[in-house]
Amino acid sequence: MKEPKKKSKFLDNQKLKDLFYMMKKIRLVEERIALEYPKNEIRCPTHLSIGQEGVPAALSIVLNNADYAVSTHRGHAHYLSKGGNLNKMIAEIYGKKSGCSGGKGGSMHLIDKDVGFMGTSAIVGNSIPVGVGLGLALKLNKTKNVSCIFLGDGAIEEGSFYESLNFAVLKELPVIFICENNLYSVYSPLSVRQPKNRNIMDLANSIGAHTYYADGNDVINSYTCLDSIISKIKSEDICPWFIEFETYRWREHCGYQFDNDLGYRSVEEYEKWKKRDPITLFENNLKEYFADFDLSQLDQITDKVTSEIDVAFEKAKKDTYPEKTEAFKNIYSNEI
Amino acid sequence: MKEPKKKSKFLDNQKLKDLFYMMKKIRLVEERIALEYPKNEIRCPTHLSIGQEGVPAALSIVLNNADYAVSTHRGHAHYLSKGGNLNKMIAEIYGKKSGCSGGKGGSMHLIDKDVGFMGTSAIVGNSIPVGVGLGLALKLNKTKNVSCIFLGDGAIEEGSFYESLNFAVLKELPVIFICENNLYSVYSPLSVRQPKNRNIMDLANSIGAHTYYADGNDVINSYTCLDSIISKIKSEDICPWFIEFETYRWREHCGYQFDNDLGYRSVEEYEKWKKRDPITLFENNLKEYFADFDLSQLDQITDKVTSEIDVAFEKAKKDTYPEKTEAFKNIYSNEI
Amino acid sequence: MKINNITFVEAINSALQISMEIDNKVICYGLGATDPKGIFGTTIGLEEKFGNERVFDTPTSENAMTGIGIGAAIAGYKTIMTHQRLDFFLLAMDQLVNGAAKMHYMFDGQLTVPITIRLIIGRGWGQGPTHSQNLQSWFAHIPGLKVVMPSTPSDAKGLLLSSIFDPDPVLFLEHRWLHNSIGEVRDGDYRIPLGKANLITKGNDLTIVSMSYMTVEALIAQKYLEKIGIAIDIIDLRSVKPIDFSCIINSLRVTGKILVLDTGVSTCSIASEIISQIAINHSNLLDRPPSRITMPDVPEPTSYGLTKDFYPRANQIVERVCEMLRIEGSKLIDEMPVISPHDVPGDWFKGPF
Amino acid sequence: MKINNITFVEAINSALQISMEIDNKVICYGLGATDPKGIFGTTIGLEEKFGNERVFDTPTSENAMTGIGIGAAIAGYKTIMTHQRLDFFLLAMDQLVNGAAKMHYMFDGQLTVPITIRLIIGRGWGQGPTHSQNLQSWFAHIPGLKVVMPSTPSDAKGLLLSSIFDPDPVLFLEHRWLHNSIGEVRDGDYRIPLGKANLITKGNDLTIVSMSYMTVEALIAQKYLEKIGIAIDIIDLRSVKPIDFSCIINSLRVTGKILVLDTGVSTCSIASEIISQIAINHSNLLDRPPSRITMPDVPEPTSYGLTKDFYPRANQIVERVCEMLRIEGSKLIDEMPVISPHDVPGDWFKGPF
Ligand SMILES: Cc1ncc(C[n+]2csc(CCOP(=O)(O)OP(=O)(O)O)c2C)c(N)n1
Ligand SMILES: Cc1ncc(C[n+]2csc(CCOP(=O)(O)OP(=O)(O)O)c2C)c(N)n1
Ligand SMILES: [Mg+2]
Ligand SMILES: [Mg+2]
């Protein structure tokens, strides 16, 4: 029996369970969506996070409800990791009245204010400055909280990223940029979008952010990194941060299918990443470093997640669509 | 008699004269504008380059007419340095028919296509991608030319700068960014706009550009730097480049007056920079390192410049305004 | 001269190919321009034929990429840039409005900016508030821009070729609901002039002025109206800037009644402009108040439930025409098939959206 | 309650001060907000009073700074952002249109975006093509935005206070030619409701609908017309989105004639919208075709020579009114003073522009 490695000291049984719970929840939710998608009841562009569960899971145990987060078109995992209500998310994807955005937003516009998840945007780069503005508010509020901005490697190419980070650094805002670099923007590899020797983390560093790089598929490592950074922000006012996490999406950019047949990426690459499945890696880590962890707990968690998901989909399907007259409401908060 | 320093070997008598000619021309043109401005015959926002003559002068002897340049609201010096027609520039500032933009553009919209000066923009950051696009055209043309983009330290804060440089690096375009860092954007010092430890050159480098930093008030040094970089681009295809030149504007941001009384910058700072007047520095350099340079040539040049300027202003004042019906022409190239 | 039955997408692709063949100064780029899907198929094969210098994918940098296109254009390259959604192009309004639209003017005719910006617009199938905007009136409001909105494959090809070779910046708006539509398209290079409308059906009772996808709905309506003896002039604008008023006026002289359809929202729309000009200059021709059918002044919701009856379709046109002609149209409307699902142009439609 | 004679700039400054005093969640920023000139004087003194956390200068990053304002707004801060020219704000259309305008809707009412964006518009004195655009119709076209265009110091203050405390995003357009105008302004906090127009002069002959600086010209015209017994209703819109149609209609019921003035260019303008709605819904009230005076569909040229007769002014209004009333107005127009120089609101005007 090996002794758990250094990192494990931060991780008690509950945290390990929570990490697994969130990864499994994201994975199984997304797989269920993939299963249901071809039935044409889900009728909106939908971007799955299968393969990318590590980073959101790690974040799920370091943030609290008074922390903010914003995300992108690929936002399901982030919504869930922030504690967003599952039933409302699934209902939203189905366009139902009970959806988290009343059916107005769909998969690309998720929100759960109760847990500080302040919305996702379908426009690349659009939510980045919004997240910085939330950080500005936190700073003005003088509370010890953080605003977390999820973004992809593609969003790095938008001027809004650069302008936003510049301002966050200028004002030393409690903001953390979580960049999930999955190597692609739609079907475009980094090579057609960013210079050969580009190192995204270094770039962020030269703009002035504190930076860190981590393997996003290693959830324990990601947790360790995020936990120490969040506490640096909250207790030492060291900020803002930009963390680059390497990871990979398994399925097509938008939709439910595998698309390695298209040829924009190689099967080898895909297989290599599949071997680095964050969930499998975690299970292996458990066995290797946390010998006293009772593995049977995992099955219980999986069962719990599965039944949560069953409920969410059942409810969502049964729920009614909003009245069509609702479409004409809430254009203004203060109608004149 | 000291031996000329190493750098001097690039500089024959003609080049030294040309450098002086251009600095003096810019200085005296701008001073004449300042003199005329309060008469209210020049009726458009006008940004002077007094104090910043070094960099444009250095460029004036390294570029040729097949090279492109674009610039900003503060574009007089760049227009002239590229070889732009003086009479047409002054006429434009006076809003006359004979102006380089037929009176439609004014001081902030100068152009002289004959010499590759492809226009200035009154919107900060707006001409940057245009300059990169010109570089793309040059690359497609497969000629050995360069596109030169003038920008200020304020423009660095625009997302368009970042996006443009990223693309120029990605495609290895023959583009050179000439950043005249004069420490201010209008009345705002760098400290309220960019992070404390920001180094603009390093930032550009991390985006992927080849970079260099030079004292923009030392015209000989600026020349040496630009000359070697332009030849690296033209003969070795090493590009793009970003050069940061430190310099200082003496008068108010927009208009003709001195404005140290406003208190946004200190008189000490201003005096320090005035001591580093590029023209005086050059004259001192001449005396120190180019003992065989006949200094009486400078007076001849000054006379020549003065009479060129006299002619330009005289003509511009006499010239007629465009017919008011001209305002309704050239909205489209191909009117339907 | 061969005529083929091809899709709107194929027609666009053909125009791109032809333009690049006949002029090696034509370049073409945009997010996904060289990926396996080739922007809904429209750019398929271009990179292979013309090389990756003239056809390329880009960083997600809409603003700079527009300025870069402008720079290449003033240096003599006829630049074609494509956005998979018009909404993404909102990032580039400075380059478009302060740059492309004004350069020819502010440099007194010395620069021309032959850039064509293809913008895909749409509606339906959960596109939601930020993937469905039809902002033609924004572009029309800006002096110096031309705005083209084809409604058939043949027009798409001929108008795109004219746009590419036009010296001015052209916004070319392709409606996603038209992409898979099929029509007769001539082989080879042909041009349809910008700024000229097309009278597609002739009738004396009422003038419908329409654009882009709404012309498809107008045609369906017209066929039903024909059944009860109502004959409609349908004028497909083809260009919404400039607007071919003489074509509209000629029709109005006969019909005295005008209904304008617009794919965009109502306030300050192309429809507003047409109706106000008619009211100002030609109210004598009207024997009824003018009318318009547009999208409501509402962001487009995502849910299938919320979009029910959200999109103006043929039955609404029939209803309005009957109202304007003061005839009883309800039976006719009852006869019209209910299109289901309501959020796609037809059930033949397969995404991606 | 004290009433002072102050400038439009001072009125704006007063509104900002009051808002920041009564609500410490109000923040205010923009390029130059804390510099010695304080955005034409409007933000002078704010930093000293409220500190550099609530009042600050910014990087030249219009797009991100807008998104940052939106973020602060959804977290409960009433955010005021200022651009010294509307034209610069074109860089931020994505944040405005895909973000601010839609958030309340697309998250089904759960977020509100209390952001006020002050945009300085203008014309004249060589501002030229990219420093003079009046794009109110763009904003009006977007569901979810409110657009305010005051014409007097008193309105500026009361409307700005309402805008700041309105839960929705408001575009607040200040015309540079009004900045130095003087008027009576009440002390303290008062609000003028958004979306309600102001009938400033009463007359039965014709209705002028106007906004912002054009109202100044309309008033000059009205005074001259009075001399020959013509009485005009001048409706100052105050808000151009939403438009107070009931005020317009009430006036039209009496006058039967409408002339709309707009500071922007013609095509798809606010004037287009007003005229088209009147033509569609109230043509029965019209005993003359409606009319409009706008800027021409031309980028604004820079030269003093080119702008001669470029800007619509009072004499053009007088002329048009006389035409519409079919009376001989040429003598009256001859009597009107020629304003010189023509490129400033009056010779009292001292830049900077
Ligand atoms: C401004 C804008 N441009 C383009 C798009 C189309 N688009 C949607 S998702 C996406 C990919 C972005 O890549 P990345 O940021 O790496 O996120 P990922 O999809 O890999 O999670 C693109 C280009 C968009 N939504 N918005
Ligand atoms: C997009 C935009 N924002 C703001 C302005 C107002 N403005 C005009 S010049 C200027 C200063 C820019 O500073 P810098 O780039 O350093 O150039 P400098 O004036 O120092 O030469 C600013 C902010 C503008 N013209 N365009
Ligand atoms: Mg990615
Ligand atoms: Mg500067």
Describe this structure in words.
Chain A has a single domain, classed as Thiamin diphosphate (ThDP)-binding fold, Pyr/PP domains (Rossmann fold, 3-Layer(aba) Sandwich), CATH 3.40.50. Chain A has eleven helices and eight strands. Chain A has helices at residues 13-36, 54-60, 76-81, 86-93, 127-141, 159-170, 200-207, 219-236, 267-275, 278-289, 296-318, and strands at residues 68-71, 117-120, 147-152, 175-181, 184-185, 188-189, 210-215, 241-246. A six-stranded parallel sheet of chain A has the order 2-1-3-4-8-7, with helices on both faces. In chain A, strands 5-6 form a two-stranded antiparallel sheet. In chain A, helix 5 runs parallel beside helix 6. The longest helix of chain A is centred in the first third of the chain and has 24 residues, at 13-36. The mean pLDDT of chain A is 96. The model of chain C has no long low-confidence stretch (mean pLDDT 96). Chain C has two domains: 3-186, Thiamin diphosphate (ThDP)-binding fold, Pyr/PP domains (Rossmann fold, 3-Layer(aba) Sandwich); 198-335, Rossmann fold (3-Layer(aba) Sandwich). The chains are: A alpha/beta (336), C alpha/beta (353). The structure holds thiamine diphosphate (2 copies) and magnesium ion (2 copies). One magnesium ion is lined by residues 152-154, 182, 184-185 of chain A. One magnesium ion binds at residues 152-154, 182, 184-185 of chain A.
Give the overall shape of chain A.
Answer: globular
| CATH-level-2 architecture of chain A | 3-Layer(aba) Sandwich
CATH level-4 homologous superfamily of chain A: Thiamin diphosphate (ThDP)-binding fold, Pyr/PP domains
First-residue to last-residue Cα separation of chain A: 71 Å
Q: Helical proportion of chain A?
A: 40-55%
The CATH homologous superfamily of the largest domain in chain C corresponds to Thiamin diphosphate (ThDP)-binding fold, Pyr/PP domains
Note the main sheet of chain C: 7 strands, mixed
Number of strands of chain C: 14
